[in-house]
Amino acid sequence: MLPLFLLAAADPETPVDAERAFYAAAQRDGQWTAFRRFMADGATVFTPQPVEAAKVLPKKDPAIAVQWWPGESYVSCDGSVAVNTGPWVRPDSVGYFTTVWERQGDGRYKWIVDAGDALPAARALPEEPRVRRAACNFPRGMAVGVIFEPDGARRGEGVSKDGTLAWAWRVMPDGSRSFTAKIWTGRRFETVVRDDVAAPPAG
Hints:
- By secondary structure, this protein is of the alpha+beta class.
- The chain has helices at residues 4-10, 15-29, 31-38, 53-56; strands at residues 39-46, 50-52, 67-68, 72-75, 81-90, 93-103, 109-119, 130-133, 154-159, 165-171, 177-184, 189-197.
- The chain is globular and about 50 Å long.
């Protein structure tokens, strides 16, 4: 029989585990250092237009890293993609984040989209993250369909390998943007995350 510590080490990483490890690294090693360490190649952030994170993340870490916690985690049936969302706190502001995680070849997760916005008051945080996994009875050949209609905006989207979780973002020319994630319930796709961010003030 394997020792318990070996069994624990063999447990696959979950998206919540990845988020917590990301947070811990930010507090220990520096905010932007952790962002770079946990991001996948080609990861996207918004400034407010979509840009490749590797090209715009600051090199110098702030003295105090942002704090954040996963409140909800939506996972595809096969675990290949997940969307985590929850509150963040800075010394002078609060808000929420939404992060898309993709499982890599080594079984670890890396983030591919990171977004969010400031809020007047912090979101409530459950004692433990609410984890919801998509149903696995996904009909072969079915597709999620169009999440955002073509309208001249810049867009990005993705879907899990098994088709049970889909996400998409849209950024308008004025910098306003939307993000949506949907999971398969066993009968239909349900929207589980919808974020709408206003355009930044002009000037």
